[in-house]
Design a protein that fits this description.
The complex is a heterodimer of chains A (about 325) and B (about 375). The radius of gyration of chain A is 23 Å and the shape is elongated. Chain A has eleven helices and 14 strands. By secondary structure, chain A is α/β, with parallel strands linked by helices. With about 375 residues, chain B is of the alpha/beta class. Chain B has 14 helices and five strands. Chain B has a five-stranded mixed β-sheet with strand order 2-1-3-4-5, with helices on both faces. The longest helix of chain B is centred in the middle third of the chain and has 30 residues. Chain B is elongated and about 90 Å long. The mean pLDDT of chain B is about 85. Classes of the chains: A alpha/beta (about 325), B alpha/beta (about 375). Chains A and B meet through loops of A and α8 of B.
């Protein structure tokens, strides 16, 4: 049984007309952990989350969330989950406290519990001095903290966060993740979607989505270790020329520029790829420093999405 | 020169873009054709200032052949349609109070003897004076000649007295506020309440609040009832304000019981709010909701009997107006305020409102899904 699993899906699919937004997704997400959906816009992250919340009916496949079938048992699930939508969905013309009071009543928290929960959340999310301020006038980071406070007000077992940090500065993002880890420590399961590599790397488990399909799945460290390519880093002044020279090689799967460096993903069957690439660059007259590098999550992402789409991904 | 050309091409770009918007917004596009179509049909066919076919009742106390001929002649003018017969004047007045008829013909027992040289009118015309157009139309009957086929034609003189004595009930002074204020009560409620709730759910959807709300344990009926409840209070505040203004500025007192009026208004307020709610579950944007609300206003205001009497309309228009809440409320509010009718006597117009409310809220609840697909 799925006692220790928070979410389990089999062949979960959602079509919008001819478009397949989510394409036969199989997931096994353990409890009391942060699980990440990493993927570009349109990769099916939000659609999957909405199906798991019971907001969208799957076209095919099945999903079990906290032991309940969705969407059939979606209503029973409501009290057990919290959902932070991608766009701010609290009431801008209500104050911070009024928003929380409202949701507390909707979730039928009794007056006493409501008071203590709201006080605790205002404190935890540094909103106590903003409690009488209207939500519309909050900064992006404050708004996002309020949204998380609202989503966790009723102490849900499972929290869905749909790109929670997309409109937030880096410091707020760090604080936000701090809060997420606190929640997980208390036993909450968190499913978060993101398109930030650094956030994805913080997750306990990760599914990389591309065009509605899961193209890689596992803990980030394992994904980086088991990447299906060698990563070669090229440093130098003539990166454009280096890129032109290397992209012609059949064994180079993709090349991405990271500041003053290039990361080339090379077929892992090629022995000593850094030597081969250095030779190619030298014969092309490009001076550069070439070395094997530790794969980053971005390399994993590029390798995974490239293999699936069958064409070269350029960054 | 190029500046002018560039300017023209920018204007043209904006104009063409606007056409694209219109073509893709089916509702607005539909209104381009729909509004003139509806207005023309309504004004052309349904709205008839030359009122005919007023519902009439007859209390014939004489029972003579001549009296029957008079009623036949009155009917032949097409000003009235006799829809009821009463045994007494009281029974006829009751029909008037209940709003079943707007004109009553009383033919006295001594009908045949009257007119034979005496100056008294031969019969009475009881008219609901709450509507000046009805009153004016009924006045056309006053001098209807009595066909004295059996009498000596020499008796018919040029200076014959009028056939009917006209008695305008409920508004003897014929003041227009008496006619307008009660009806305005219904029109104002319609204009404000339908709009309030028409945007109620669409607004939450547009602002993104709905996606959060539908993942909470809130149930659809709870959401719907919670949404309209505050506006019932607002509706009552508006009714009170209008009644106070009517009473103290325009001297339009409430003849019937205030409790009846408030209960009747409550039913109408609920019906109007659910109409708005229904719009809110159909419309995708607040602007669309406004447009749809506007589309429901036109027939309500034109066909309800507010601007033009109900009796002048052809049957399709009447049938349509029987569906509209305002039609029934106008009858209720005029009945209670002007004629002193009780809500029980106006039951005919109460149950359609209750039915409308029940159907509309059921459809709204059924249409609303706690889903995004």
């Amino acid at each position: 049984m799925s006692g220790e699993l928070a979410i389990r899906t089999r062949g979960l699919t959602r079509r919008f007309g001819a478009l397949v937004a989510v394409d036969h997704v199989d997931l096994e997400i353990p409890r009391a952990a942060i699980y990440g959906f990493l993927g570009p816009n349109g990769s099916g992250k939000s659609t999957t989350i909405r199906m798991l919340c019971g907001l969208l009916t799957p076209s095919e496949g099945e999903a079990e969330v906290l032991g309940l079938h969705v969407p059939a048992d979606a209503e029973k699930l409501r009290r057990k989950i919290g959902y932070m939508t991608q766009a701010f969905s609290l009431y801008g013309d209500l104050t911070v406290r009024e928003n929380l009071e409202f949701l507390g009543e909707i979730y039928s928290l009794d007056a006493k519990l409501r008071r203590t929960r709201i006080a605790a959340l205002l404190d935890e999310f540094h909103l106590a001095d903003r409690s009488a301020q209207r939500a519309a006038t909050l900064s992006g980071g404050q708004r996002q903290r309020l949204a998380l406070a609202a989503a966790t007000l009723h102490e849900p077992e499972l929290l869905f966060l749909d790109e929670p940090t997309s409109a937030v500065d880096p410091q707020s993002r760090r604080d936000f993740w701090e809060s997420l880890f606190n929640l997980v420590e208390r036993g909450t399961t968190i499913l978060v979607s993101t398109h930030y590599m650094d956030e994805a790397e913080r997750c306990h488990g990760l599914a990389i989505l591309d065009q509605g399909r899961v193209v890689a799945q596992g803990p980030p460290s394992l994904l980086m270790r088991d990447i299906d390519a060698s990563v070669v880093e090229i440093e130098g002044d003539a990166l454009r020329a280096a890129r032109d020279a290397l992209s012609r090689l059949p064994e180079v799967q993709s090349i991405a520029q990271l500041g003053q460096r290039l990361h080339a993903l090379v077929d892992r069957r090629l022995p000593a790829p850094e030597v081969r690439l250095a030779q190619v660059l030298e014969s092309a007259g490009v001076r550069a420093h070439v070395a094997l590098a530790r794969p980053s999550l971005e390399d994993v992402f590029v390798a995974a999405t490239r293999r699936e789409s069958g064409e070269e991904v350029r960054w | 020169m190029t500046a002018v050309r560039q300017s023209l091409s920018r204007i043209s770009a904006i104009a063409r873009k606007e056409f694209r918007h219109l073509r893709r917004d089916r509702l607005t596009g539909g209104m381009v054709v729909g509004v003139p179509l509806m207005m023309t049909m309504l004004f052309g066919y349904a709205i008839n200032q030359d009122v005919r076919h007023l519902r009439a009742g007859v209390a014939d106390l004489s029972g003579t052949q001549r009296a029957r001929l008079l009623v036949q002649d009155a009917q032949a003018t097409q000003v009235i349609d006799v829809v009821a017969a009463a045994q007494s004047v009281q029974a006829l007045e009751q029909l008037l109070v209940e709003g079943r008829i707007s004109v009553g013909i009383v033919i006295p027992a001594d009908f045949d003897r009257r007119g034979a040289g005496d100056d008294r009118p031969r019969a009475q015309l009881l008219v609901d004076g709450g509507d000046p157009i009805v009153l004016a139309a009924a006045r056309g009957l006053v001098s209807l000649p009595v066909s004295d086929r059996f009498a000596n034609p020499r008796l018919a003189t040029a200076r014959a007295p009028p056939t009917f004595e006209l008695r305008a009930y409920y508004n003897p002074e014929r003041r227009s506020p008496v006619h307008i204020v009660p009806a305005l009560c219904g029109v104002i409620l319609t204009l404000t309440l339908v709009l309030f709730t028409a945007v109620a759910i669409v607004r939450e959807r547009e602002r993104g609040n709905l996606e959060l709300l539908i993942t909470t344990p809130v149930q659809t009926p709870e959401l719907m009832v919670g949404k309209i409840a505050p506006y019932v209070v607002i509706g009552y505040a508006q009714v009170t304000l209008i009644l106070l203004l009517g009473r103290f500025l325009f001297s339009v007192p409430v003849q019937g019981r205030l409790l009846d009026l408030y209960v009747g208004a409550g039913v109408f307020v609920a019906a109007s709010l659910t109409l708005g709610l229904l719009i809110s579950t159909v419309a995708q944007t607040q602007f669309q909701a406004f447009q749809m609300a506007f589309v429901t206003f036109l027939p309500q205001i034109l066909l309800s009997g507010f601007m033009f009497p109900f009796d002048g309309m052809p049957w399709p228009a009447r049938w349509l107006s029987e569906v509209l809440p305002l039609t029934h409320f106008l009858r209720i509010v005029r009945g209670i305020i002007l004629r002193g009718a009780s809500l029980g006597e106006l039951w005919r117009d109460v149950w359609p409102l209750l039915l409308f409310f029940s159907l509309a809220i059921s459809i709204a609840i059924a249409r609303f899904r706690k889903r995004l697909d």
